[in-house]
Amino acid sequence: MADAQNLAIIGGDGIGPEVVAEGLKVLEAVAGAHRFNTTAYDLGATRWQRTGEVLPDSVLAELAQADAIVLGAVGAAPGATDVPSGLLERGLLLKLRFAFDHYVNLRPSRLFPGVPTPLAESVTAGKEVDFVVVREGTEGLYCGNGGVVRQGTPAEIATEVSVNTAYGVERVVRDAFERATRRRNKITLVHKHNVLVNAGGLWRRIFESVATEYPGVTTDYLHVDAATIFLATDPARFDVVVTDNLFGDIITDLAAAVTGGIGLAASGNINPDRTFPSMFEPVHGSAPDIAGQGIADPTATILSMSLLLDHLGLAEEAARVEKAVIADIAGRTAGQRRSTTEIGDAIAAAV
Amino acid sequence: MADAQNLAIIGGDGIGPEVVAEGLKVLEAVAGAHRFNTTAYDLGATRWQRTGEVLPDSVLAELAQADAIVLGAVGAAPGATDVPSGLLERGLLLKLRFAFDHYVNLRPSRLFPGVPTPLAESVTAGKEVDFVVVREGTEGLYCGNGGVVRQGTPAEIATEVSVNTAYGVERVVRDAFERATRRRNKITLVHKHNVLVNAGGLWRRIFESVATEYPGVTTDYLHVDAATIFLATDPARFDVVVTDNLFGDIITDLAAAVTGGIGLAASGNINPDRTFPSMFEPVHGSAPDIAGQGIADPTATILSMSLLLDHLGLAEEAARVEKAVIADIAGRTAGQRRSTTEIGDAIAAAV
Ligand SMILES: CC(C)[C@H](C(=O)O)[C@@H](O)C(=O)O
Ligand SMILES: CC(C)[C@H](C(=O)O)[C@@H](O)C(=O)O
């Protein structure tokens, strides 16, 4: 049995702490003899409003020592005009992804039995919708390059620079091919190389070159615009999708929507080289409108714990969490309202 | 009655010439006493393969004299490895959009009665899905700024630069607000200002400032990732959507998918100041796999002719084309197969 593992917990804002509590409950229940030590970190909009601090260096250094990080959600209420746009996203969430080199942003999409989807039966009936998006997490338009000149004047110019390196693209493409070999051996590159000829050319060449090392994996390419069409009309065609940071952001929200909504969408910000802790979080945000009412669905966070367990080498426990979630979902009936803790309790009891 | 108007016709590749022929047939039928002179231009992959020319300056100069341009689709068969990626997109299609200052890329999305959508009935039944995306057409990541260094080496870097100007953003936002006043007085800005803080800040500030001039228009903001969710789960919420070039590209394909597919999606590349001819084209591509079989659906092109008529001041004729299309669609039955010309003939007879 492994030693105890240290988890850094960032509940964050809004429903973040509520759903994280249920995630940890399930983690505890499935852990058995395996020990997790948790340390809570107070970060997010509320902390900033109180102290003016987003992510002190000392906290970043402490987080770096954890075996993994659990994040709820960060973000102020939409009306909170005191929080500048991007402050928490760039200063906290993306800072962690970049500082800890989370180059694989893993987002599984599975249409579980019994889950209502906005798609017509003709699109989904009898088909298995089960794919995973491997979104690059450390480059592209997310790197924060760009600027503004002559702000607020009629001559203002604002730029954003997408930076893509062979180093960054190759490692994530390779990770995606590896995952494809552990799944149904199919991989789709999503980009827009007919317009973004520089970045697209790089992605395409590297994709094609790595593909030669995986002759058993079938490859496919879709422009990002066409990819959204297929996500709505034939999501069963996908197995592993690999794409850049921004395209990954966009298509994973759509992927979540067609497989039951972001209330179910889990994600891992993974550093496959284990040079820094990986971070697990639901795809959804802090949902300030329903915070404090105990009605947030913790399922996405609980599924993120399954990804965490898997990453920490506890594959059997990861599978048990996923199985318990699937069973819980199958038992849900339309219109039924269960509280956040009721769902957490039920899944914790079943793992 | 206006003088005859001169239309430049670029059929292009694949199914392009086939669908354009039907579009012109309907235009001729609805024109009545109004005269259109058409001049065909041979441009696209086939021309390039034959002559090595994409868009000679002399042709560009001639096109500039037209009253409007009708474009089918350009693009080689996927297997045609001799056509470099982006050559026709950047060198022809985008070159025309930029050279003729098509800053409004207009893409209406309407779920016509009887059209099959991939969305569940619960999403669409009893609701009117009828919105228009105003996509910026001359800036952003489409401007072709960026480059590659150390190509083909492990140290390769590829960049793409999104350029956004107050000048460019304000004119398209203003156009979108004007359209909202002629529709249901609702407008949604789609961007990603929490990550793309420079460009997003510019878009947001200009949007909010123009909004003060339109107190009767309700404004809304969505991050692009969230926008894809709503397009799949509640498309009826949209009226006018205004967004940048790349986001517009992505969400209009999804919008087309949920309202019946790109076989029905029309578009106008519009220069509202009329300093250069506007260009009308279906959203779909050259579909080389079905070219030459006479089975391509010309509906998107015919609807684009409605946009063209409207732009040229023939609003009544534009409405007649749209009405004839709606009636034709309502009469279609599942599994029915009509040829390209049958559909064109039927609509031409009905206008
Ligand atoms: C909150 C935001 C910065 C973030 C992103 O864009 O990556 C979110 O949308 C996500 O997908 O995790
Ligand atoms: C072909 C391509 C350059 C074009 C675009 O990206 O604008 C197309 O996708 C469109 O939407 O008209």
Short descriptors:
homodimer, 12 strands, alpha/beta, 10-stranded mixed sheet, 351 residues, Isopropylmalate Dehydrogenase
The most extensive contact between chains is: A-B, 68 and 69 residues
**Shape verdict of chain A:** globular
Quaternary state of the chains:
homodimer
Rounded average pLDDT of chain A: 96
Distance between the termini of chain A: 19 Å
Helix fraction of chain A, binned, reads 40-55%
How many E strands of chain A?
A: 12
Approximately how much beta-strand content do the residues of chain A carry? 15-25%
Round the Cα radius of gyration of chain A to an integer and report it. Answer: 20 Å
> pLDDT below 50 for ≥5 consecutive residues: which ranges of chain A?
none
Query: Mind telling me the CATH superfamily name of the largest domain in chain A?
Result: Isopropylmalate Dehydrogenase
Largest sheet of chain A: 10 strands, mixed
Name of the CATH class of the largest domain in chain A: Alpha Beta
Task: Provide an overview of this structure.
The structure is a homodimer of 351-residue chains. With 351 residues, chain A is α/β, with parallel strands linked by helices. Chain A has two domains: 1-102 and 273-351, Isopropylmalate Dehydrogenase; 117-259, 3-Layer(aba) Sandwich (Isopropylmalate Dehydrogenase), CATH 3.40.718. Chain A contains twelve helices and twelve strands. In chain A, strands 2-1-3-12-11-4-5-10-8-9 form a ten-stranded mixed beta sheet, sandwiched between helices. In chain A, strands 6-7 form a two-stranded antiparallel sheet. In chain A, β8, α7 (197-211) and β9 (218-223) form a beta-alpha-beta unit. In chain A, α6 crosses α7 (197-211) and α8 (224-233) packs parallel to α9. Chain A is globular and about 50 Å long. Chain A starts with a strand and ends with a helix. At the A-B interface, α4, α5, β6, β7 and α6 of A face α4, α5, β6, β7 and α6 of B. One 3-isopropylmalic acid sits between chains A (89, 93-94, 249, 283) and B (194-195, 225).
